[in-house]
Amino acid sequence: MGFCCGGFGWGGWGAWGGLGTAGLILNLVFFVGVLGLGTAWLVRRLGRRPLVPAVGVEPLEIARRRLAAGEITVAEFEEIRDRLQS
Questions:
Q1: Which of 2, 55, 58, 64 is the most buried (most CB within 10 A)?
Q2: Stated pTM of the model
Q3: From CA 75, how far away is CA 86, in angstroms rounded?
């Protein structure tokens, strides 16, 4: 008998919450999953390109790149071009 909780260990359930080795494995899987998700989030967060364009890039060039990437339509590009040229 132990000196605490009637000899049953922490909380009265024994090692690893009463599940024994299965509890250890489940806790390990959970920890590795949380660690993996956190790492994936951090890699994605740090791997993003900055939203601010590089210094010296012309506005029309930015519009061309956005058109090529499919972010804007041809009509929107032409409107931007007309505004920049006037």
A1: 64
A2: 0.38
A3: 17
